[in-house]
Amino acid sequence: MGTLMPVFEGTATQDGNKMHFNWQDNSGTGNAEDTDIAMLLIYNKDKETAVYDTEATLRSARHAELQLPSDWQDDELIAYLSFRSADGSCVANSIRLTVTVDQTDLPAPDQEVSALCTSSDRIPLYPKPKQPVINNVSVKDLTYYTLTGKPFQGRLYRTG
Description:
Low-confidence stretches: 109-115, 138-155
Strand content: 35-45%
Distance between the termini: 48 Å
Strand order of the largest sheet: 5-2-1-8
Mean pLDDT: 78
CATH architecture of the largest domain: Sandwich
Number of helices: 0
Helix content: under 10%
Largest sheet: 4 strands, mixed
Oligomer: single chain
CATH class of the largest domain: Mainly Beta
Order of helices and strands: EEEEEEEEEEEEEE
Shape: elongated
CATH topology of the largest domain: Immunoglobulin-like
């Protein structure tokens, strides 16, 4: 069991081939110091292997990145964050972070040329963009469910 104060809240966000770690700086709580060193680890459950950095940055930085192999894009990943004291005498228990995937860099479909299908009335159905932008803020997790027109070959298709 680690004797160094861990962080209690953190996030791990996958953005392409990088994993972004963020945490609250709790320096001054217990024996946590702003000079403690962050240790990052990503475990790939599908490939049963890990990448790590045991000297990523200081606790006070509140952010670090870890480069991922290019063939890990669609694999199930688990992130761990821990700290060690600057002199290496104390180590904190690691915490497991839920990995979220940042999809804000995905291009929106070209609505003019990407009809999903044609209804029985020969009207093309175009998808709505997956990341609408309102006042320069990308909206995540907005889902459109649109049932349209007459059935196509006996089925209604949901778009969006």
